[in-house]
Specification:
Blueprint lengths: L18 H16 L6 H8 L3 H7 L3 H11 L14 H10 L7 H14 L3 H28 L9 H5 L1 H13 L5 H17 L5
Helix pairs in contact: 1-2, 1-4, 1-6, 2-3, 4-7, 5-7, 5-10, 9-10
Length: 203
């Protein structure tokens, strides 16, 4: 009887040296400049001075390449070690430090992806799993600590509250055309998030 070993999805070979990083950097730049819809594997290959065959050996689809690129981009880091001791301080750190809403790179990348996320299933799945998931985990920890400290009322919908700051900032940036400045972020935190966190019983 022949034994068949169980195996997960085959890992595509990495590109040697610094070439992979150069390709990913070129991809991020194109997403930020032209958007996902206008990005092509040819354009990335040309910008990175690589062959299209090299790209396809590593990434089978445009969605895989783009999400890999933005997930590892130096300008869009996953927040690390955010714990200032208060919900307000944590939210300011998340929103205003490197990789936050006041940074040009992550906001440009977000703008480049918005039109495609709602209609490209492959992009949406990869974006949620590889880009959003680790960042949402950090935000979840911030709100969990706030609950433990008693900063959030017992009757507050924490999941909805946690999505409010990015929702308001993204609406201002991409619908109203209002730059996401630190002042705007502080207004949302102080006049929307923190009052809502206390809950109706605190009114």
């Amino acid at each position: 009887m022949t034994e068949v070993a169980e195996a997960g999805p085959r890992q595509r070979p990495r590109i040697e040296g610094g070439r992979e990083e150069e390709i990913l950097d070129a991809c991020v730049d194109i997403v930020a400049e032209l958007g996902y819809d206008r990005l092509t594997m040819d354009a990335v290959a040309t910008a990175a001075k690589a062959s299209k065959a090299t790209l396809y050996r590593r990434w089978s689809t445009k969605a895989e390449l783009v999400v890999d690129a933005i997930s590892r981009a130096k300008g869009c880091p996953v927040p690390d070690g955010v714990d200032t001791g208060s919900l307000r301080g944590d939210l300011i750190a998340l929103a205003c430090d490197e990789g936050g809403f006041t940074d040009e790179m992550p906001m440009s990348v977000t703008a480049g992806l918005l039109t495609a996320l709602h209609r490209d299933d492959d992009l949406q799945r990869a974006f949620q799993e590889r880009f959003l998931k680790p960042r949402l985990a950090v935000v979840s920890q911030v709100y969990e600590r706030a609950v433990e400290r008693g900063e959030i009322g017992a009757d507050v919908d924490v999941e909805l509250l946690a999505s409010t700051l990015p929702a308001v900032i993204i609406h201002h940036a991409f619908v109203l055309g209002v730059e996401p400045t630190e002042d705007l972020i502080l207004r949302v935190i102080d006049h929307v998030i923190l009052p809502a966190a206390r809950g109706p019983q605190a009114s």
